[in-house]
Amino acid sequence: MPGRAGHKGQPPVDHVLVQTTEPKAAAAVRISTQLALRKRAELLEGLRPCFARTEPWLQAGKYLRAVMRELPELNGWSIARDAGDRRPDKTQRLLNHASWDTFAAMGVVRRFAVAGLAEAARKGRRRRGHLVIGAVDETGQEKAIPAEQVRDPVKSLATGLPPGLAFRTKGQLAIDLCAEACADGLAFDFVCGDEVYGSSTELRQFLESRGQAYVLRVASNLILTLAGGAKITCAQAVKRLARDRRRWEVRSAGQGSKGERWYARAWIAAASPRHHLLVRRHLRTGELAFHYCYVPEGQVLTKARLIWADAVYTGKLAAWAATMKMTLQIVARRNPHAFEVLPRRWVIVM
Question: pTM value?
Answer without folding.
Answer: 0.61
